């Protein structure tokens, strides 16, 4: 049975920047609990905010009924069918612990603490996405509670229009209580991290961009300028270059592809080798949180040398404070192609994504904003929904989708959530809240 707690001031979240302030919180343990909470919120005339693990939520949820699914933690792996059915509160680390027992892996996020549901239904750029597509592309079924309180099964053959919309539409059309995803035979990988001295960044960063353009689809890579991590001896450095790679091809061929990077000067740590897939978290080695931070992102149709130069020129700062985190993630491969069953994930055809994360002290925030403005000017203005962070409002959410999909999404929102019950977080707004220029 669900627990309802009135006026809890704070609920655990990965980001401490936007603590929720709901009218009440429902800790759902079953789909029936979710149904009951939705019906109660509608009866009260309140909006609904949803939290599975709290990793990606940037919303104060003022006066909402906050439904948290963190207690829904079931995982069912079918090694014969190579599928996993995953409940709404599960994190990717938990899934990988179960699937690697069978030499299988899903298309998952870079951090083991990221929740499966929000990540996947926002699109999901994963370490295996160049090979297998966005996480949303692989979804086989979504169990969904709609604004009417109905519990429905959304598949390519049932509620086909919603199957298109929820795979990329995040929580705009209902609350997902479970999904089914395919698993791929990946018992091991060739990958890990290389850390470079900050003085090497002006040479390594443009080399990296040219290098990844030569890689096959089964080799994924990204690079980040970030604060030092405990695993690297970097006394006196304010920041490092962190290069991450994940290959599911032949290890000898993978090593040969990486060889040009290994000839570059300034390598402090090289931890790239053949690993069992259970060690996949070592590629990005993301922080466990929670911390207070700001976050923004953009798809980049093309990553130019001019942008790299501008970012490197803007990065130094004499005022101290924690440096911003800047990531360029190479896309392409299967992410550029239409999936077997179309969905509304935006940004296909983009060459890179860029994400800028800053701490909330004045110096760090100002540096992050300056760098993000450079990235924004070089982009088409399209956010990556998984990393949209503190960009809120109906215009910014719709901007995450391709222009030709926006009217269809608004029409489906009008059909399945006419009262805009699901209106908190990065969700599509009711048509009345959207400027006429957006359709």
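^ structure tokens above, recovered residues below v
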């Amino acid at each position: 049975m669900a627990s309802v707690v009135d006026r809890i001031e704070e609920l655990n979240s990965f980001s401490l920047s936007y603590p929720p302030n709901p009218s009440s919180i429902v800790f759902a343990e079953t789909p029936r609990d979710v149904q009951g909470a939705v019906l109660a919120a509608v009866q009260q005339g309140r909006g609904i905010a949803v939290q599975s693990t709290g990793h990606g939520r940037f919303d104060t949820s003022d006066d909402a009924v906050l439904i948290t699914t963190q207690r829904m933690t079931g995982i069912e792996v079918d090694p014969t069918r190579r599928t996993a059915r995953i409940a709404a509160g599960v994190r990717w680390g938990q899934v990988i612990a179960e699937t690697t027992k069978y030499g299988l892996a899903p298309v998952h996020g870079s951090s083991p603490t990221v929740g499966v549901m929000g990540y996947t239904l926002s699109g999901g750029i994963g370490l295996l996405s160049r090979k297998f597509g966005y996480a949303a592309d692989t979804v086989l079924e979504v169990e969904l509670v709609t604004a009417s309180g109905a519990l429905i099964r959304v598949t390519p053959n049932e509620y086909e229009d919603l199957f298109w919309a929820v795979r990329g539409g995040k929580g705009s059309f209902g609350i997902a209580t479970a999904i089914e995803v395919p698993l791929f035979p990946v018992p091991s990988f060739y990958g890990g991290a290389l850390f470079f001295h900050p003085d090497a960044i002006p040479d390594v960063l443009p080399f990296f961009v040219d290098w990844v353009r030569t890689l096959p689809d089964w080799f994924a890579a990204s690079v980040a300028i970030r604060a030092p991590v405990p695993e690297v001896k970097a006394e006196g450095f304010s920041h490092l270059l962190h290069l991450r790679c994940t290959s599911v091809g032949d290890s000898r061929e993978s090593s040969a592809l990486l060889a040009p990077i290994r000839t570059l000067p300034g390598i402090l740590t090289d931890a790239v080798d053949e690993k069992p897939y259970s060690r996949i978290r070592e590629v990005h080695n993301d922080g466990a949180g929670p911390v207070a931070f700001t976050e923004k992102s953009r798809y980049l149709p093309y990553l130019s040398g001019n942008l790299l130069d501008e970012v490197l020129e803007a990065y130094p700062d004499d005022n101290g404070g924690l440096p911003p985190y800047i990531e360029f993630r190479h896309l392409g491969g299967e992410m550029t192609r239409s999936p077997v069953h179309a969905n509304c994930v935006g940004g296909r055809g983009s060459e890179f994504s860029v994400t800028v994360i800053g701490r909330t002290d004045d110096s760090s925030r100002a540096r992050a904003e300056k760098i993000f403005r450079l990235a924004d000017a070089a982009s088409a203005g399209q956010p990556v929904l998984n990393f949209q962070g503190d960009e809120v409002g109906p215009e910014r959410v719709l901007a995450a989708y391709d222009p030709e999909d926006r009217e269809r999404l608004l029409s489906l929102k009008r059909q399945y959530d006419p009262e805009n019950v699901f209106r908190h977080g990065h969700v599509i707004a009711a048509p009345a809240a959207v400027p006429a220029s957006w359709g």
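The longest strand covers residues 188-196.
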